[in-house]
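ingest -> validate -> predict -> emit
validate: passed (alphabet ok, no gaps, 486 aa)
predict: started
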Amino acid sequence: MSTETTSKLTVRRICIAFVPLVTLIGMIVLGVTVFGRDVGDGPSQISLVFATALAAVLAMSVGRVPWSVLEQGMTASISKAGVSIMILFLIGMLSGAWMIGGVVPTLICYGVKIMNPHLFLVCACIICAIVSLMTGTSWTTVATIGVALLGIGTALGVPLPWSAGAIISGAYFGDKLSPLSDTTILASSSTGTDLFVHIRYMLFTTIPSMTLTLIIFLVAGFFLVDASAVDVQGFVDGLSRTFHITPWTLLVPLATGVLIALRLPSLAVLFISALLGGISAALLQSDVLLSVVGEKVPSAVGYYKAIVTTFFSSTHVSTGSAVLDRLVSTRGMSGMLTTVWLIFCAVSFGGVMYAGGMLKTIAEVALACVRGLTGLVGATAVTGALMNVAAGDQYISILITADMFRDAYREKGLESRLLSRTIEDSSTVTSVLVPWNTCAMAQSASLGIATVAYLPFCFFNLISPFMSVIMAAIGWKIVRPPEAKP
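emit:
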């Protein structure tokens, strides 16, 4: 085959791979421009459907990929998202139960009395980092303590996007370093790196990234919040008038911590925690619980109806303050349906892109641009981020990036831990920054904040990929295998 023919084939493959991706990004940007914050309520899903159709047409007509292969790719991708979807439903269930059960209001009341408004962002980031490090999951961290911290930040006068950025930054720091994290295990195993070697090596990029993040949040806290203008007592009084604020409600998050320490699966922890929240509502917040369904006289049927409604439907509690009313309102399991719709569309797009060989082509393009060690690490980081954009799933991103670059690192005599670290510095942490990625959808749904709103303030997630490249450029702790040394 001639060089010219090979070149044409390469250009054709590149076009097939990038046209659907560019189309999707263009349609998403147009959707944000036209629909604003409502882009996730339908326009993004339609954009993904159109991009999926375009990818399928190009794969079949130009790439000669049979429809059956593309269909299998979509089916496999959707099946992998099943657990994520169930987790989302349980997060909706838990958020309603913890709010009506008085868990979140109690945490808010105690939190605003303890926390200095200027130090809130730093404290929120550190707290989420510790919890996520212990649990191994950013999703559960954000859905539980993250929601409570968001309420505390609101009471202290901290802008919501900044609070969300601090919460997510901390949650992904812990998720990235925890030996219990599925992404940490996947990144190490897919590159053939010992788990604890992988974790120790990540410290050389993760600690500097987190240090810079905390410095930014510390400085920002003194400029963002006017402590004298914050009516903290008004928030506490409003919540105290409506809910029974008592330390007994804290038994629910304490029990959740015990379940996590026992290393129960996330699904089990979320489900049991939601049930405990429902019990707390029945025992400690009976008036608020019955008001959810308009009942005034306590009865077994009334309690059952109210608890079930809290689990599956939106709830609205009147506190006498419009701000507090918005804060304590919940969406239940049904509030996650729009996000689930978006997940189905996103993973279908990723499935077609994967089955059609387009994701592999995108990775090959990045690999072709490699020049030297810094270029290799940079190409790995870019590929990890691009795979999150193209596939809409961090697990696919991790696996494809590891598969594409494994031989390149080996040929250059570089240890596998450099590859696994770079994958975590890109694939894991940037997943939450892509609006149609399953991670971003989960965090956005939990916090009730659009991805595009919190994205600029997730400093840890934004800094990490660049830190990985910087460390490669200066050669700090870049160790070659003994057999590769001169």
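Residues 83-335 form one domain.
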